[in-house]
Amino acid sequence: MSRVPLMPAAYSDDPREKVLAAIERGEKKSQVSRMFNISRDTIDRWLKRRNSTGSVQAASGYQRGHSHRIKDWDAFRAFAKLHGDKTQSEMVQLWQGELSERTISRALAHIGWTRKKRRTATENAMKTNAPLS
């Protein structure tokens, strides 16, 4: 399972409304910023959002994480099982659609597959010493 980094939660509508009400009462942005412990940039963004949309509600429905080019995970699992012996660059060429090697790498990790760094096993670099006589 892939992990998406957690982002800070958006402020609820109530504190947003209180901050903007304080601004409308004539209080300075810097004073409101200190009072509510938020940045002036945040206040400016809320004012801009209210002016453009009429609401200060947090944006929703936006994408988190990478763009998800692989939609059918069952089909990708079957593809990985069939072409699991190939390199990631070869798998990119065989996949029907446009993918990068990094996307293949993330997708393989998502389905729980690990990849070897080399195509063939290497001999152990440690050699035993010949006995001294």
Q: What are the SSEs and their pairings?
A:
Blueprint: H1 13-24, H2 29-36, H3 40-53, H4 73-83, H5 88-94, H6 101-110
Plain-language structure description:
It is a single chain. With 133 residues, the chain is mostly helical. Among the domains are: 13-53; 73-110. The protein contains 6 helices and no strands. The mean pLDDT is 81.
Offer a few descriptive terms.
133 residues; mainly alpha; elongated
Shape: elongated
- Give the terminus-to-terminus CA distance: 57 Å
The succession of helices and strands, N to C, reads: HHHHHH
The major β-sheet equals: none
| Structural class label | mainly alpha
Number of helices: 6
Roughly what fraction of the amino acids lie in strands? Answer: under 5%
Counting DSSP E segments of at least 2 residues, the number of strands comes to: 0
Report Rg: 27 Å
Mean pLDDT: 81
State the low-pLDDT regions, or none: none
Helical amount: 40-55%
Assembly level: single chain
Short précis:
The chain is mainly α and 133 residues long.
